[in-house]
Amino acid sequence: MDVQAEVSHRPQPAASQALKRFTVIDLTRVRAGPTCVRQFADWGAEVIKVEMPEGEGAGDFSARHDPDFQNLHRNKRSITLNLKTPEGVAILKRLVADADVLVENYRPDVKDRLGIGYEALRTVNPRLVYVSISGFGEDGPYRERPGVDQVAQGLGGLMSVTGEPGRGPMRVGIPIADLCSGLFAALGAMTALLERETSGQGQWVQTNLLEAQIFMLDFQAARWLMNGEVPGQVGNDHPSGVPTGCYKTRDGYINIAPPPFLWRRFCAAMQLDHLADDPDFATGAARRNNRDRLNGIIEALTMQEDGAALIERLNAQGVPAGVINSIDQTFADPQVVHSGIAQSVPSAVLGDITIVGQPVHLSRTGSKLVTGAPEIGAHSGEVLAALGYSGEEIDGFRLRGIV
């Protein structure tokens, strides 16, 4: 029997043709790991989500039908497997033998204790790309610490540059360390798959919440590393570009963000031509030194106008400006509706649901949502049968709590 062909058999259409030839084993939980695997599932890879059997510490099953879980785990199949048993590990190794990628986000010591670490599984499949996402890294003084998004935001410096001066540290309103580490892990895995085409060998891909968060500091990190400047909080203002910020209008708030080369156009659009050559505002450095006074002048004008009219006038001059939406307003925005990023997908239990699709568009092999998140263990029988296990063996696994 051609095990690879059987395991890759799909009960529903592929989400995309782009990664259809790859099989991914998903051992992840929470958010960072599922974010990584979602990139494979949405681009057509055959993703087999491995979960603990119900009653074996698998977590809160009531959350399975919540929006968050559905958004993270679409386009996958699910099997249950008790990896605390030798039989469960043996089944996983049988899956791994013909897989391309395995993704896990256990604490670094856990996978080796279970006997499913990289060194153990590379002997089963030398072509395997093994992806690990941890809180702080696979080695180092924080190796065994539990890591979550908010802790990484704080340790990685992000909370020190977020929020208003004097108000204390502020977390970002999304789990950005989780999301970025997951996306970087997916990028690393796909890079390793490309390299495998020439070497024929898999490798261990590692990332962690802390390093992903630090990478996302971007120019704020560079200000310290190159110039010894410790950035601080500036609220809705840009750390260096002035004027850039959030301004109150007659009917709400808008963002205005003219780059320095559009200073004169901004002044013209705002009927502030007299400021264009004012020595207090004519250069970027001067505007930074007089930020509060300039913002006061601008907001005194914006408060007299409706946001939509002001945005239209600024945009007509090429000056970036836009409304500040609530989440419901975002998904009602005509450009967002046109983009199709909110997509409906069938769920076995919930019926048709709407979740967030991919923000990347490929001209020939685009991504689509084909199924909602699977029910736990919904595909255990078919996946195990494809691996060559008999019906009697599968029933025995179930009776013994292996699946």
Topology of helices and strands:
Layout lengths: L2 H5 L15 E4 L5 H11 L3 E6 L15 H6 L4 E4 L5 H11 L4 E4 L3 H7 L3 H5 L6 E6 L14 H7 L20 H24 L4 E5 H7 L3 H9 L17 E5 L2 E5 L6 H7 L14 H6 L1 H12 L4 H10 L4 E3 L3 H6 L1 H6 L2 E6 L3 E6 L23 H7 L4 H9 L4
Parallel strand pairs: 1-2, 1-4, 2-3, 4-5, 5-6
Antiparallel strand pairs: 7-8, 8-9, 10-11
Helix pairs in contact: 2-8, 8-9
Describe the fold and architecture.
The chain is an alpha/beta fold. The chain has 18 helices and eleven strands. The protein has two domains: 3-216 and 341-399, Crotonobetainyl-coa:carnitine coa-transferase, domain 1 (Rossmann fold, 3-Layer(aba) Sandwich); 245-326, formyl-coa transferase, domain 3, CATH 3.30.1540.10. Strands 3-2-1-4-5-6 form a six-stranded parallel β-sheet, with helices on both faces. The chain has a three-stranded antiparallel β-sheet with strand order 7-8-9, with helices on one face. A hairpin with a 3-residue loop joins strand 10 (342-347) and strand 11 (351-356).
Question: What's the short story on this structure?
Answer:
This protein is α/β, with parallel strands linked by helices and 403 residues long. It is 38% helix and 13% strand.
Tags for this model:
alpha/beta; Rossmann fold; formyl-coa transferase, domain 3; 2 domains; six-stranded parallel sheet; 11 strands; about 40% helix; elongated; disordered N terminus
Alpha plus pi helix count: 18
Strand content: 5-15%
Order of strands, main sheet, comes to 3-2-1-4-5-6
Shape: elongated
